[in-house]
Amino acid sequence: AQSVTQLDSQVPVFEEAPVELRCNYSSSVSVYLFWYVQYPNQGLQLLLKYLSGSTLVKGINGFEAEFNKSQTSFHLRKPSVHISDTAEYFCAVTIKAAGNKLTFGGGTRVLVKP
Amino acid sequence: DTAVSQTPKYLVTQMGNDKSIKCEQNLGHDTMYWYKQDSKKFLKIMFSYNNKELIINETVPNRFSPKSPDKAHLNLHINSLELGDSAVYFCASSQAYAGGPGYNEQFFGPGTRLTVL
Questions:
Q1: Contact A91/A34 with Cβ under 8 angstroms?
Q2: Per-residue pLDDT tens digits for A56-110
Q3: Nearest CB to B43: which of A41, A90, A97?
Q4: For A50, nearest residue in chain B (alpha carbons)
Q5: Which one of A25, A33, B8, B36 is at 20 to 30 Å from A73 when CA atoms are compared?
Q6: pLDDT band at A52 (very low <50, low <70, confident <90, very high)
Q7: Rounded-to-integer distance, Cα A104 and Cα B77, Å
Q8: Which residues in chain B have their CB less than 8 angstroms from residue A32's CB?
Q9: Dihedral of the alpha carbons of B103, A97, B41, B46, in degrees to the nearest 10
Q10: Tally of CA atoms within 13 A in the half-sphere of A39 that contains its CB
């Protein structure tokens, strides 16, 4: 079975500073990878996804992530954060043979400080 | 218009009661899901229905019973509520799951916060 580990439970960051959220996955077969964002008291919104092709994936709100197969990682980055980026971020994986069954990591809370 | 809606938004109830959470999507999707997010924010899939047919059923107690009257609705009924059922329950929907390789983006509802006292 596949699994996802988000190495940081909380990441405090100052406004306009860069941020990186780490995600590692485990799977014996090919995967699809995702980052979701959950703003306070809201549902999840897809930030970006890796299905195939270029390993650098660009998403909404200036976020990007890089798929590294050898390191089984899918880290999320943003070069300059805003106060509005304060949220919980979830990395998720699904194996290609069961396309829509998502397995989530434990989440990383990003707190952007002025 | 809300794409995936859930009612109620908050639900507070006593142990042992039976309660239902409703979910509706107006995206024309064929597949719907229920997820549970516990107090530590851990998200786990519970069920998935494709065209009113159950296709994913994780190791969820029998007290939880999903019901899909039509493909736009997936309700979750919980019998004999326990303290450990306290969580946020999210409904989601996607285009039809055809089985095998492929992925269709899931759209999530705003969640229902269930508190069992």
A1: yes
A2: 999 999 999 999 999 999 999 999 999 999 999 999 998 876 657 889 999 999 9
A3: A90
A4: B103
A5: B36
A6: confident
A7: 24
A8: 103
A9: 100
A10: 9
CA pair distance A62, A35, nearest whole angstrom: 13
Name the 3-class secondary structure at B84.
helix
Handedness of CA A22, A35, A112, B92 (dihedral sign): negative
Amino acid at A54: S
Tokens coding A59: 């998403």
Task: For the beta carbon of residue A91, count every other beta carbon within 10 angstroms.
Answer: 29
Half-sphere exposure of B90 (CA within 13 A, CB side): 22
Kindly calculate the radius of gyration of chain A based on its CA atoms and give it in whole angstroms. 13
Give DSSP secondary structure letters for B36-75. EE-TT--EEEEEEEETTEEEEE-S--TTEEEEEEETTEEE
One-character DSSP codes across A20-66: EE-EEEE-SS-EEEEEEEE-TTS-EEEEEEE-SS-SEEE-GGG-EEE
- List the structure tokens of B58: 């994780």
Using a CB–CB cutoff of 8 Å, tell me whether B68 touches chain A. Answer: no
Q: What is the dihedral of CA B45, B51, B52, B53, to 10 degrees?
A: -70
Establish if A90 touches chain B: CB-CB under 8 angstroms: yes
